[in-house]
Amino acid sequence: MESNRGRSFSRRWFLGAGTASLATAGLGTGLTACGSSGGAGGDGKTLTAFVYGDDAVKVQQAAVDRFNKSAAAKKAGGTIKLQKVPGSDYSPKLRTAMGSPSAPDVFFNWGGGSIKAYEEAGKLVDLTGIIEDDPVLKDGFLPSVLAAGDLKGRHYGIPMRGMQPVILFYNKSVFTEHKLQPPTTWDQLLDINAKLKKAKITPFALGGSDIWPDLMWLEYLVDRIGGPEVFRRIQDGDAEGWGDPAVLKAAELVKELVDDGAFGSKFTSVSYVNGGAPAVFAKGKAAMHLMGSWEYSTQLGKFPDFARKNLGWAAFPTVEGGTGDVRNVVGNPTNYWSINSRIKNKDLAIAFLKECASQAYAKDLVALGDVPTTSNASELLSSAPNPEYAKFQYDLVAKAPAFTLSWDQALGDALGTKMHTEIGKLFAGKSSPSEFVAACKGLK
């Protein structure tokens, strides 16, 4: 279990705000000026697929091995060659390769901001029409996940790893002792906070020194108050979207939580990465923890008894007066395969991407501890390491009308890093909600 926990956690940390710069480093400038002779894929008989080289790559390797022996590969006239790139080197190596004659034909990415520069440079195949015309691709994945990696409403990727929604975790033993139930409304959450503080228990663990855990609160609050359209406007490049009343209201609710001691008095010096926040939560010093779905595997590795006996999970509550659907989720929907526009055998690449919708592919993800994003994966979850938890995650995402990609991933490195700075100021009390909004509107 420890190896699975480490894989999930390190993958999140690479994805997350703390090192979001790795995910998109240097993609914005000089891309269109790079060499364009030759062309991806050579003669089109062997296509190269770049993939992030962590422990989970065994799923993609098995898929390549299966596909290369399949009738689909034979019909399309070629095979796939998987090129595994070490995680810390992935983004810079991808960027260099994409500007060279030896560019990959297919490549792993995070969707959203991580591929924006490639799309602007004309280096991606727009998959929207292809997906719409192909029942396997159109119906094979949960719609909210398929759409979450989009750019301006167009599909440029096919889901190829497990889902990672942000979940409200709670300590069941603390809740039982104080006769509490997970909150379904914001008022209930505030009432729980008051009861916990009276019992000298911090309501929420928060790794505020990393800042990216702070972001999860704003993501959910903005969604619940104004719906997914509010951030979608910002993601599409309209900085005035930060001025939406939902953003100010969310910032005001954050300030109220901070001022009320919902995160304790020292959360800005507590880290998730070094295990501080998970320990505070597992040891009962904090009753709840808003965190990505990898929290289960993190706790299983660090505090296995707590993970198995006392870790509870629930959806983020609704906010009274808000227009956002309580079924919406935020987080990292999944990773995606995208196709280089210079590919010589697009039919072969599309045939390979369909493999990600297969039962065999989904089974391999489940065996690794992931929850697949395929539309027919629910029947496989009984074999997951924790079937109850896997089913909760799957149902949460399957029923979600919208799955908002983590803001830092959606905006890309340059804006994401600046946004983190402003979020850190808001949570630390160094800027007011109105100052936070004004600062974000000025981000470029």
UniProtKB/TrEMBL annotation:
PROSITE patterns: PROKAR_LIPOPROTEIN (PS51257), TAT (PS51318). Pfam families: SBP_bac_1 (PF01547). InterPro entries: Bact_solute-bd_prot1, SBP, TAT_signal. Gene3D superfamilies: Periplasmic binding protein-like II (3.40.190.10). PANTHER family: ARABINOSE-BINDING PROTEIN-RELATED, BLR3389 PROTEIN. This is ABC transporter, substrate-binding protein. It comes from Streptomyces graminofaciens. The lineage of its organism: Bacteria, Bacillati, Actinomycetota, Actinomycetes, Kitasatosporales.
